[in-house]
C-alpha cells in the first residue's frame, strides 16, 4: 500500500512539474483518482474474499 501511495505521489509531482493546459491537468487528476478508487475497490474485494 505504501508503494502505491509513493507511486501516486510521484506521479502527481511529475504531473505538476510539466507545464500543461488546465484541461489536460484535470483529466490527469481524474485518471489518478479513478485509478486509486479502482485499487481501493480491488483491495476491499480481496479482503472480503479472504474473510469468507
TrEMBL record:
This is Phospholamban. The keyword ATP-binding does not apply. Its main location: endoplasmic reticulum. It holds the Pfam family Phospholamban. InterPro entries: PLB. Keywords: Acetylation, Endoplasmic reticulum, Membrane, Mitochondrion, Phosphoprotein, Sarcoplasmic reticulum, Transmembrane, Transmembrane helix. One of its GO terms (cellular component) is mitochondrial membrane. It is found in: Endoplasmic reticulum membrane; Mitochondrion membrane; Sarcoplasmic reticulum membrane. The chain crosses the membrane at residues 31-51. The keyword Membrane applies. Gene3D superfamilies: Phospholamban. GO terms for molecular function: ATPase inhibitor activity. Belongs to the phospholamban family. It comes from Triplophysa tibetana. It is a single-pass membrane protein. GO terms for biological process: negative regulation of calcium ion import into sarcoplasmic reticulum; negative regulation of heart rate.
